[in-house]
Design a protein that fits this description.
The complex is a heterotrimer.
Chain A: H1 2-10, H2 14-35, H3 46-50, H4 55-85, H5 88-103, H6 106-117, H7 122-127, H8 137-162, H9 165-173, H10 178-189, H11 191-206, H12 210-215, H13 223-233, H14 236-261
Helix pairs in contact in A: 2-14, 4-8, 4-11, 5-8, 6-8, 8-11, 9-10, 11-14, 13-14
Chain B: E1 3-14, E2 17-28, E3 32-36, H1 43-51, E4 58-63, E5 66-67, E6 78-81, H2 93-103, H3 108-121, H4 137-149, E7 155-159, H5 167-184, E8 187-192, H6 195-201, E9 204-209, E10 212-217, H7 219-224, H8 229-234, E11 239-247, E12 250-253, E13 256-259, E14 269-275, E15 280-283, E16 290-299, E17 304-310, E18 313-319, E19 328-333, E20 338-342, H9 358-370
Parallel strand pairs in B: 3-8, 3-9, 6-7, 7-8
Antiparallel strand pairs in B: 1-2, 1-4, 4-5, 9-10, 11-12, 11-14, 12-13, 14-20, 15-19, 16-17, 16-19, 17-18
Helix pairs in contact in B: 2-3, 2-4, 3-4
Chain C: H1 2-27, H2 44-51, H3 53-86, H4 90-105, H5 108-125, H6 131-162, H7 165-172, H8 177-206, H9 209-214, H10 222-231, H11 236-275
Helix pairs in contact in C: 1-11, 2-11, 3-6, 3-8, 4-6, 6-8, 7-8
The chains are: A mainly alpha, B alpha+beta, C mainly alpha.
Chain lengths: 270, 372, 276
C-alpha cells in the first residue's frame, strides 16, 4: 500500500524523467558517439587523436577567460559589497540597473562595445585616430568582462545581503574594524556567492565564440570558435570531440568548486 | 561599587516613533542588572546603544567616566551575546572563541591558553574542532558566551540569550550564567521579557515600558513595592483595585476600610492598591473583610487559582484549600499584604481578572517571543 | 570620504556598463548610415525596421517559441518538482536534479552541439531529408529542455517550504490526491510557478547560441536576426532593433520591480500594525 502510494506520488515526475533521458542524456550520448566515429560512422580514435593540435587554442581560451573572471571578481566584489551596504531603496535601484544589461541580449551588448572600440567607432572618431583596438586580446577580455560582470555581482550581492545583521555586529563587537570585518567574516561567509559568480562568468567566457568573433576581429580563435567552425564546415566529429572534452573539463571543475563551496544554494540567481 | 556605565537623558526614535524617552540609568561595576519589559519597550535598543550598534539621538553615555557615544563597538570594553548567538559558521568552535583574540594579535600560545580556559568554564572541552552548526542550541549558547568573555571585557551584554532554548535548559543556563558572573565578577547587562528569569538572576532589575524606565530596584523591592500598576502587573500576578487613602495607614477599597503600612499621601487621595493573590486568605463569609462569589477554580498543582467576583471586580486568589464555584466566601487581608501606589497613566489598565484566561496569556507570550 | 569613494566607484562601473548601450540607442536615431558620427536626429532607421518583413516574422517566431517553450516547461517542470519532492529515495532525487541541471551548467555551445547532433540522428533514422520540416519542433524541444531546470529550481524550494501539512489536511477533508494538488498545493506554490515561467520565458527569448546550432533556415528568431545583421556591415537599423529590445527589457524590469516593491511595502505595513 505504502509502496504503491509513493510510486503514485512520484509519477508526477515521470514526464520530466522521460524528457530528460530523451533530450538531455541521449543527445550527450550521441556527442560521445560522434566523437568516437569518423564521418562514415566507423569507430575511430582519430578525432580524439587530433585534439592535441587544438591545445594552444584551448590554453588561449583558458587564459583569456581566467583573466576576465579575475577582473570581474576584483571589480564585482566591491560593487556587490557597496550595493549590499546601501539603503534598501538604493539597493533595489542599483540591482535593477545591473539586471538591465544582463537581460539585454548578449549580441546587442557585444555589438555595442564594437560601436565604441571599432576602427570607425566612437573612440577613434572622437580622438581622430585609427587605433586598432578590436582584434587585440585586451578587447576580447574587455568584452567578456563587460558582458558577464553582472553575473559576478548579482550572486555575490545576494549572498552578502543574506548575511545575518548580527554577524556584522558580532564581528565589530569582537574587535574587527570595517576592513577586518570584511576579510575575516564577510568574504568567508560570501564564499558560495563568489563561487557561483566565478562559475557564471568562467563557463560562458571560456566557451564563447561570439565575443571573440566580433572583438577578436578574426585575428585569433578561441575554443568556442573552433567548435563553431567545425559546425559550419560540417566537420561534426571533431566538433563533437572538442565539445566532449570541454564539457568534461567544465563539469569536473564545477564539481570541485562546489565541494569548496560546501553549500547547496548558489549556481542560480535572480 | 563604582558607577561603570552611566546613561544620561538617552533618547532615540525611529521614523518619528519614540523608542527611548530620556533614559537615565547608571550601572555599577560587577552587578547583574536586568532590563525587563514587554516587547517594544526599548530594552533591546538600550542594550544596543551601550554595545555601540546604535547611536542615541540625544543624551550621553559614559563608560568609566568617559563619554563613549562616538566610540565604535570594536573599541569598547563591552561584548555582546547575541540573541541568535551569531556564531561564525565558517569557523569551528575553537576558532570562534579565538576570534577576538586574533583581532588583538595575541600570541598563539596565549590564545590557546585562554580559549582552553574558556572551554573549561563553559564545559565544552573536547568540542574544539566541531563545526558550530552541528552543536545543539545550549552548546551554541555556551560558545557564544565563551567568545564574548575570552577577551576579558568589563561588561557583558546579553540580549534575551535564553529565548531560543526549551524550558528545562533555560533553567540550567540561568544558574550557569549566574555562576559564571559571580566567578569572573564583571558586570552583566541582561535583557529579557521573562519576569521570572529577571527575579531569579538579577541584583538589580530595571522595568521598562513605552520607552521609559518604570522602576529600578532589587528583585524583592520590585515585587513587594511596585511603583505603579504596570510594574505590579508585569511582575507576578496582582489584583489592582481603586482605593482612597483616608489617612496614613488607612485605605478604603471595595467598600471596606483596611489597615495598611503605607503613608505620606494626601487626605482622601485616590490611589491604586495592590494585593498579591497569595497574600489573600479565604475564610468563612462572616469572618471576611470582603465577601464574594467564586466564579471559577483552576487546579494549578501547588495551589488552586480562584477567581472571585467582589462587587463586579474579579480578584485572583491563590489558595491551597479547595472552594466550590458559586460558593460565597470571605476574604481576609493582613495589613502588610496591602501595597498602596500613586495613580499613574497605567491605572485602571491592569489587575482585573474579569477577562482572564491562561490562553490569552500564552498568546501574548508568543507574540513577545516572535519579536526579538 | 569612504562614502564618496564608493559613490565614485559605483558611478564609474555603471558608466562603463551603460555607455555602450546608450551609444547604441543614440545612433539608432542617426540621420545617416554612420555609426560613429551623429549627424542629426531622425526616425528613418525605425521606419526601415518596421517596413522589414523579416523583423516582424522574427519577432512573431521568437514570441511563439518563448511562449510555447515556457508553457511546456512550466507544466512538466511543476509536475516534476512535485514528483521529486514526494520521492523517498535520496539517490533518485539527486540523480534527477543533477541530470536536470546539466543544460544549465553546460556551456550553451555544448548543449547546442548535442541537440544539433541529436536531431541529425533523428533525421537519418526517420529518413527525413528536409531539416526545415522538423525545425520548429527541434527548436521547441531544445528551448523547453534548457528552460526546465529554471522552472524546477524555482518551484521545488516553494514545495519544500510548504511541506505536507496543507495537502494532508486537504486529503483529510475529502480531496483526492489530484484535487489536493490542484485545489490546495498549486495555489500556494503559484508565486514559484509564475517566477519559474517568467524565467523560462526570458531565457528562451534571450537565447542565441542554442538556437544558432538548432535553428532551421525557415524559422528565424530575433537573436538570430541580430546575428545575421551583424555579419553584414552594420547599419543603424540593427541599432534601432536593439534599442527597442533594450527599452522593452527596461520597461518590463520596472514593472516587475514596482510590483515587488508594492508587495514589500504592504508587508512592512502589516508588520508595523502588528507591533503597535
Amino acid at each position: 500500500m505504502n509502496k504503491k502510494r509513493s510510486f503514485m506520488n512520484s509519477i508526477a515526475a515521470a514526464p520530466h524523467i522521460f524528457w530528460a533521458v530523451l533530450f538531455i542524456i541521449l543527445p550527450l550520448l550521441i556527442v560521445l558517439y560522434y566523437a568516437f566515429t569518423d564521418s562514415d560512422g566507423h569507430f575511430s580514435f582519430s578525432n580524439i587523436a587530433s585534439l592535441p593540435s587544438y591545445a594552444s587554442i584551448f590554453w588561449l581560451s583558458l587564459e583569456l577567460s581566467i583573466i576576465a573572471t579575475a577582473i570581474c571578481l576584483l571589480l564585482g566584489y566591491p560593487l556587490a559589497y557597496i550595493i549590499a551596504k546601501s539603503k534598501p531603496k538604493t539597493q533595489k535601484i542599483l540591482s535593477m540597473l545591473l539586471m538591465l544589461p544582463m537581460w539585454t541580449n548578449l549580441l546587442i551588448r557585444t555589438y555595442s562595445i564594437m560601436a565604441i572600440l571599432d576602427n570607425g567607432g566612437i573612440i577613434n572618431t572622437l580622438l581622430g585616430t585609427s587605433m586598432q583596438i578590436v582584434g587585440t586580446k585586451g578587447a576580447v577580455i574587455f568584452g567578456m568582462v563587460y558582458d558577464f560582470l553582472p553575473y559576478m555581482v548579482l550572486p555575490i550581492y545576494t549572498c552578502i545581503s543574506k548575511i545575518d545583521k548580527n554577524m556584522w555586529e558580532a564581528a565589530s563587537d569582537l574587535g574587527c574594524n570595517t576592513f577586518s570585518t570584511l576579510t575575516k567574516v564577510i568574504i568567508p561567509l560570501s564564499r558560495s556567492g563568489i563561487i557561483s559568480g566565478v562559475t557564471m562568468v568562467l563557463v560562458p567566457s571560456i566557451s564563447t565564440f561570439y565575443i571573440s568573433q566580433k572583438l577578436g576581429g578574426g585575428t585569433f580563435e578561441l575554443i568556442g570558435d573552433t567548435i563553431e567552425r567545425q559546425f559550419v564546415t560540417g566537420a561534426l566529429n571533431v566538433g563533437a570531440a572538442i565539445s566532449l572534452v570541454m564539457m568534461i573539463l567544465i563539469l569536473i571543475s564545477l564539481t570541485v568548486m562546489n565541494k569548496f563551496g560546501d553549500s547547496d544554494e548558489g549556481g542560480i540567481i535572480v | 561599587m563604582a558607577k561603570l556605565i552611566e546613561l544620561k537623558g538617552i533618547t532615540k526614535s525611529y521614523d518619528g516613533e519614540v523608542i527611548l524617552n530620556s533614559i537615565n540609568l547608571y550601572i555599577r561595576d560587577g552587578e547583574f542588572i536586568t532590563l525587563l519589559g514587554p516587547s517594544g519597550c526599548g530594552k533591546t535598543t538600550t542594550l544596543r546603544i551601550i554595545g555601540g550598534f546604535e547611536t542615541a539621538d540625544e543624551g550621553e553615555l559614559y563608560f568609566d567616566g568617559t563619554e563613549i557615544s562616538d566610540v565604535p563597538p570594536h573599541k569598547r570594553q563591552v561584548n555582546t551575546v547575541f540573541q541568535k548567538y551569531a556564531l561564525f559558521p565558517h569557523l569551528n568552535v575553537y576558532e570562534n572563541i579565538a576570534f577576538p583574540l586574533r583581532m588583538k594579535k595575541i600570541s598563539e600560545e596565549d590564545i590557546k591558553k585562554r580559549v582552553t580556559e574558556m572551554l573549561k568554564m563553559v564545559a565544552l572541552v573536547g568540542f574544539e574542532n566541531k563545526s558550530v552548526s552541528t552543536l545543539s542550541g545550549g552548546q551554541q549558547q555556551r560558545v557564544a558566551i565563551a567568545r564574548a568573555l575570552v577577551s576579558h571585557p568589563k561588561v557583558l551584554l546579553l540580549d534575551e540569550p535564553l529565548g531560543a532554548l526549551d524550558l528545562k535548559l533555560r533553567k540550567d543556563m540561568q544558574n550557569e550564567l549566574k555562576t559564571i558572573q559571580k566567578a569572573i565578577g564583571i558586570t552583566f547587562i541582561y535583557v529579557t521579557h521573562d519576569q521570572e528569569e529577571a527575579l531569579s538572576m538579577s541584583d538589580t532589575i530595571v522595568v521598562m515600558a513605552d520607552g521609559e524606565i518604570q522602576q529600578i530596584g532589587t528583585p524583592t523591592d520590585i515585587y513587594n513595592e511596585p511603583k505603579n500598576a504596570f510594574v505590579a502587573d508585569f511582575i507576578g500576578e496582582s489584583n489592582i483595585v481603586d482605593g482612597i487613602m483616608l489617612e496614613d495607614k488607612k485605605v478604603r477599597m471595595s467598600g471596606h476600610t483596611f489597615d495598611c503600612l503605607d503613608g505620606g499621601y494626601d487626605k482622601n487621595e485616590p490611589v491604586d492598591v495592590v494585593v498579591r493573590p497569595e497574600d489573600v486568605d479565604v475564610v468563612k463569609p462572616e469572618n471576611g473583610m470582603l465577601t464574594g462569589i467564586v466564579s471559577s477554580v483552576t487546579f494549578k498543582g501547588v495551589h488552586y487559582e480562584i477567581i472571585v467576583d467582589i462587587k463586579g471586580f474579579k480578584w485572583m486568589i491563590q489558595s491551597t484549600d479547595y472552594v466550590a464555584p458559586d460558593e460565597k466566601i470571605g476574604l481576609f487581608i493582613e495589613p502588610d499584604a496591602i501595597h498602596v501606589m500613586k495613580k499613574s497613566k497605567y491605572s485602571g489598565k491592569f489587575g482585573d481578572y474579569s477577562s482572564f484566561s491562561d490562553e490569552l496569556d500564552t498568546l501574548s507570550d508568543a507574540d513577545t517571543a516572535e519579536e526579538f | 570620504m569612504k562614502k564618496y569613494a564608493s559613490r565614485i566607484y559605483l558611478c564609474l562601473i555603471f558608466a562603463i556598463l551603460y555607455i555602450p548601450l546608450v551609444t547604441v540607442i543614440l545612433f539608432s536615431f542617426n540621420a545617416t548610415e554612420s555609426t560613429a558620427e551623429f549627424s542629426g536626429f531622425s526616425l528613418y532607421w525605425y521606419s526601415e525596421l518596421f517596413k522589414s518583413e523579416e523583423a516582424w516574422i522574427a519577432l512573431r517566431n521568437t514570441l511563439i517559441l518563448a511562449v510555447s517553450a515556457s508553457l511546456i516547461a512550466t507544466v512538466i517542470g511543476t509536475a516534476a518538482a512535485e514528483g521529486i519532492y514526494k520521492m523517498r529515495s535520496k539517490i533518485c532525487k539527486t540523480a534527477i536534479t543533477s541530470v536536470t541541471n546539466i543544460p544549465m551548467m553546460n556551456p550553451d555551445i555544448v548543449t547546442g552541439m548535442s541537440m544539433m547532433l541529436f536531431f541529425a540522428a533523428v533525421m537519418s533514422i526517420f529518413k527525413i531529408a528536409d531539416y526545415n520540416k522538423i525545425g520548429f519542433v527541434a527548436m521547441l524541444i531544445s528551448h523547453t529542455t534548457f528552460c526546465l531546470p529554471y522552472v524546477i529550481l524555482s518551484v521545488l524550494p516553494r514545495i519544500n517550504e510548504l511541506g505536507n501539512s496543507l495537502s494532508d489536511a486537504a486529503l483529510d477533508l475529502g480531496c483526492t490526491p489530484l484535487q489536493a494538488f490542484f485545489k490546495v498545493k498549486l495555489p500556494n506554490i503559484m508565486p514559484g510557478v509564475v517566477s519559474g515561467m517568467v524565467m523560462a520565458f526570458t531565457m528562451s527569448l534571450d537565447d542565441f547560441v542554442i538556437s544558432y546550432f538548432v535553428g532551421p533556415t525557415n524559422f528565424q528568431t530575433l537573436p538570430l536576426l541580430i546575428y545575421s545583421m551583424t555579419k553584414k556591415t552594420v547599419k543603424p537599423d540593427m541599432y534601432a532593433l536593439s534599442t527597442i529590445i533594450i527599452i522593452s527589457v527596461f520597461v518590463l524590469l520596472i514593472i516587475s520591480n514596482m510590483k515587488s516593491t508594492k508587495r514589500l511595502s504592504a508587508n512592512q505595513k502589516k508588520k508595523g500594525a502588528k507591533t503597535k
